[in-house]
Amino acid sequence: MEAGFSEMRNELQSRDALWRRIQLECQQLHTELLKISEYKDMQEIQIKHQSSCVQLIEQLENKNTELLLLAQSQEHQREELNKIRNHLYREEQSHRSEQERMKTEISDLTEELHQKEITIATIMEKASLLERQLKMELEIKDKLLAKQQLLDFRYRVIKSENTHLKEMV
């Protein structure tokens, strides 16, 4: 009987440890979600920063255009204008590729977040199922324990009666 109790205690401790691991994993997943959110915020700040860089580039282009109008040599003006256009084109291409990379990263992170949410939901369902199973097992073990105690009590009563009958004989 003590072995049964010990086994039940070990089973309960095992399930409790499993439940704690599940809770820890949920906490870790929540921490990762917060990190992803912070990373997304940082990316939005970078996009805003890049937008201001484009504005600065546009302002520089306007200044360069004014300087070109003041220049005396028409050939020199054309060369400067071509240089500015090439530079602007490269900056725009660089900016576009950076935006595409960020969009891809955000998409990947969103998908990863979705997968982690699914994982959390699955873990929570499993934990709920395990909790229900554990309750059912505890109820069964409680019933068995009550039956065992009843049988033990009956055994002692019969043994006492037998002893009493032997004494009377």
UniProtKB/TrEMBL annotation:
Entry keyword Cytoplasm: yes
**Does Cytoplasm count among this protein's keywords?**
yes
- Residues of the signal sequence? none
Please name the GO terms of the biological process aspect recorded for this protein, alphabetically.
centriole replication; de novo centriole assembly involved in multi-ciliated epithelial cell differentiation
Per the record, the coiled-coil ranges are 57-126
Q: Which UniProt keywords apply?
A: Coiled coil, Cytoplasm
Q: Which GO terms describe its cellular component?
A: centriole; cytoplasm; deuterosome
Tell me where in or outside the cell this protein is found.
Answer: Cytoplasm
PANTHER family of this UniProt entry? Answer: DEUTEROSOME ASSEMBLY PROTEIN 1 (PTHR18875:SF5), SARCOMA ANTIGEN NY-SAR-24/CYTOSKELETAL PROTEIN SOJO (PTHR18875)
Q: Which protein, by its recorded name, is this?
A: Deuterosome assembly protein 1
Organism listed in the record: Eudyptes chrysocome (Western rockhopper penguin)
